[in-house]
Amino acid sequence: MTATTAAIIFAIFSGVIMVFQACLAAGLPWGAASMGGKYPGKYPPKMRFVAVLNIFILGFMALIVLSRAEVILSAMRGFSEIAIWVVVVFYFVSTILNTITPSRIERIWAPVAFILLVSGIIVALS
């Protein structure tokens, strides 16, 4: 798989998570599928803000991966060569946490996190 393909896959799956976070921020009752199921139903206002913040963080990580793969923002390339490893570590931890979460429904994110981890590694090693 090429770095470009891996980066696009990474961006698509990041987009899926960003939409999920937007739904949480908008008040959809999907809290059981996030944060270890600590907030079943609708997120409280503070957590809705956190969901919005997560959207920006996830988007920034996608930009790092896309930049490292030279899909967009070539001016960010130097930064992305280092930052890509932060993204890889983040999704390594995310894969573990989504696998061991006490929330059964939240485990649906483990394969997504793993796909993001693998695609991030492919881009990082390119």
Q: How would you sum up this structure, described in words?
A:
The chain has 126 residues and is an all-alpha fold. Helices cover 70% and strands 0% of the residues. The protein is built from four helices and no strands. The longest helix is centred in the first third of the chain and has 24 residues, at 3-26.
Strand content is under 5%
The major sheet is characterized as: none
Fraction of residues in H or I helices: 55-70%
Mean pLDDT rating: 94
| Rg, nearest Å | 15 Å
The general outline is globular
Q: Calculate the terminal CA-CA distance, rounded to whole Å.
A: 10 Å
Structural class: mainly alpha
How many β-strand runs?
Answer: 0
Show unreliable segments. Answer: none
* DSSP helical segment count: 4
Q: What is the chain-wise order of helices and strands?
A: HHHH
Topology:
Elements (H helix, E strand, L loop, with lengths): L2 H24 L18 H24 L8 H24 L8 H16 L2
Helix pairs in contact: 1-2, 1-4, 2-3, 3-4
Characteristics of this structure?
126 residues, mainly alpha
Short description:
The chain is mainly alpha-helical. Helix content is 70%, strand content 0%.
